[in-house]
Write a structure and sequence with these properties.
Helix content is 48%, strand content 13%. It has 10 helices and 6 strands; from the N terminus they run H-H-H-H-E-H-E-E-H-E-H-E-H-E-H-H.
Length: 208
Amino acid sequence: MFLKERLYPEKQSLKLVGDKFRLDKQQRMILYRGIVSRRLAGVRKARLTDTIQGRHLLMDGYNILYALVNYLMGKPLFIANDGLLRDCGGAYGDIEDPLLMKRAVTLLAQYLRLLGPSSAVLFLDSPVPRSGLHRQWWESVRRDLQVKTTFSQSADRAAIAAATEGDIIATSDSGILEATPDCPIFDLPRYIIGSSFNSRPPDLSRLF
C-alpha cells in the first residue's frame, strides 16, 4: 500500500514486495489484483450498489462467468480492497470441464430473474474458446429475460461504448470501471456465489 499511494510502477513494486517476502505466484497475484490505492478503493466502494431491480444493467459476460467457473473449480477467490470479488488468475479461455461454464450460464440466468433488472445487455468476447457454444447455452436459458446479447471482438470496448450515466455495470475489470465513472457497480458474481453457496471469500478490504 505504501508504494501504491506513492504511485510507484506496479510491476516493479510487486516484484520488490514479492521478492522481499518470498511470495509465491498466487500470493503475488492476490496483491496485484487485490490492492488499489485508498483513494481509488474509496471511489469504487462508493459506487457499489446492492440492487439492480428496475434498472438497466450492462454485464461484462466473461468477467462474471469465469469468476463463477473459478469458484466451481475450487480456485481461490477474494474480496479486493475496493470491495469487488476477484480471483487469483484461475481458469480463462478453454476449461477442462466445459459443463462448468454451462452451470455458470444457468446460474447467471437464474439470478437475473430473481434480481429483476428492467433490461440488460450481456457482452461476450467472440475470440474466447467455445464462445459460440456459450452463446447457444445462454440463448437457451435466458428465454423470458429482457437481455440483449452482444457478441464482439472486445466486450470491454463494447460495454464502455454502450454505457450511459446511471446504467449499472457488472464487472470487476479496472479498465471498464475507470471508463464508466458515472455508472453504479453491482458485483454480480459475489452476489451469486454468496447467495447460492453461502460463501464468504477472504476480504482484503478489512486489512487495507
